[in-house]
Design the sequence.
């Protein structure tokens, strides 16, 4: 019994566990023989980083290295193996599983020396199948796999695939293994976050620990040598934590959600029934704090904040109504006033509580402490909120507010309005 762990693009062993990927953490928790290989783009300095990261170069070498370990293990009596991978190396993990099924165990002269071992478990984080030039106007690089066999591995006992619902980068399009759910042994679920929020390695463990815990839990269910204590070390995820920055301004239309797709609990917003409420936390340092609530077009909602709750803009403490430039004096007032039009909601006060339908500023509205006022949602979408500030200044913010959103049957006399473009 052994584990074959393929780490993600540009990922390798890190001294700080916060920066380690889920592949490495899973491997460290595995209480058996484990072979780990770093991701493409980690060898041969800057040139290797470019060739590996952009083109996936070095993948075949990693397959050969892992296969050499496999031959050694099987010839010494191993009959059951487990495989995991992240990003482009998740695609290598799929190819590795298919290669084992196709050729079994052969020596350097390609003579059969042992039957293929049982592949008990295949765990994947946001599989990327592109190994070509990431330029859509040149070619459909997602089709280029440089000879890798990325067919759904129907012969493995069980496969789990965690996919990032918020990734936009066109060179990290998720490779679906069971889009039509034709394979009962392959389970694909969407999770909140961008590519590395799901696979780890970017420090956002509030989200990546969710998928790690899920993958370890499934592994334990299928007999892998991971203890419940090791799994429970990662029961620290926060489903509503802020996702990491997307570097592409628009969504890639190829990362599509199918009607039959499944989502991990908390990955998508929940609609409220009339009279139903949900309470969520708005963190001052977050560009967007997610509510876990899905607003429905034409329905009415109120927003309540505890008046004793405060948050802090650098050194200025205030509540949901924020603070005014007039509170300053002298040169500081003159200086700050120059930036009022650059606030995310220019007409609102500094640090006023602002709501948003979706993670954009197309549909934003002032909440403040107007608890009885209602918003009639002009469109359906997930509810977010934030402290009104300059986008460049969230690193000096602190504190949080607890906000309760309630769906009501009728609009109130006072209405909350979406800001005009």
Sequence:
């Amino acid at each position: 019994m052994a584990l074959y762990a393929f780490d993600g693009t540009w990922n390798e062993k890190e001294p700080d566990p916060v920066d380690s990927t889920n592949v490495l953490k899973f491997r460290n928790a595995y209480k058996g023989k484990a072979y780990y290989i770093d991701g493409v783009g980690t060898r041969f300095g800057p040139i290797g980083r470019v060739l590996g990261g952009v083109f996936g170069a070095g993948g075949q070498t990693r397959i050969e290295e892992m296969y050499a370990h496999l031959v050694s293990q099987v010839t010494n009596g191993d009959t059951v193996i487990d495989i995991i991978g992240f990003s482009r190396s998740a695609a290598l993990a799929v190819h590795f599983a298919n290669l084992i099924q196709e050729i079994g165990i052969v020596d350097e002269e390609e003579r059969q020396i042992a039957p293929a071992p049982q592949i008990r478990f295949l765990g994947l984080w946001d599989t990327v199948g592109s190994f070509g030039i990431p330029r859509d106007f040149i070619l459909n690089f997602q089709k280029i796999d440089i000879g890798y066999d990325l067919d759904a591995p129907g012969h493995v006992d069980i496969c789990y695939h965690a996919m990032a619902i918020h990734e936009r980068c066109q060179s990290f399009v998720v490779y679906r293994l069971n889009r039509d759910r034709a394979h009962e042994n392959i389970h694909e679920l969407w999770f909140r976050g961008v590519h590395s929020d799901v696979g780890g390695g970017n420090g956002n463990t509030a989200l990546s620990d969710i998928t790690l815990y899920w993958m370890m839990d499934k592994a334990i269910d299928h007999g892998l040598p991971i203890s419940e204590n090791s799994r429970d070390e990662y029961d620290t995820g926060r489903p509503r934590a802020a996702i990491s920055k997307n570097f592409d301004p628009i969504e890639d239309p190829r990362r599509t959600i199918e009607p039959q797709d499944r989502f991990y609990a908390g990955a998508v917003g929940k609609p409220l029934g009339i009279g139903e409420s949900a309470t969520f936390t708005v963190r001052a340092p977050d560009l967007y704090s997610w509510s876990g609530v899905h607003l429905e077009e034409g329905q009415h909602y109120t927003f309540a904040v505890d008046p004793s709750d405060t948050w802090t803009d650098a050194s200025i403490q205030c509540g949901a109504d924020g603070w005014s430039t007039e509170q300053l004096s002298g040169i500081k007032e003159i200086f700050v006033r120059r930036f009022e039009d650059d606030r995310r909601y220019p007409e609102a006060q500094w640090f006023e509580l602002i709501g948003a339908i979706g993670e954009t500023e197309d549909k934003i509205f002032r909440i403040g402490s107007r608890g009885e006022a209602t918003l009639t949602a002009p469109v359906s979408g997930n509810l977010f909120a934030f402290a009104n500030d300059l986008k460049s200044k969230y690193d000096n913010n602190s504190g949080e507010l607890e906000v309760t959103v309630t769906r009501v049957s009728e609009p109130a006399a006072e209405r909350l309005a979406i800001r005009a473009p």
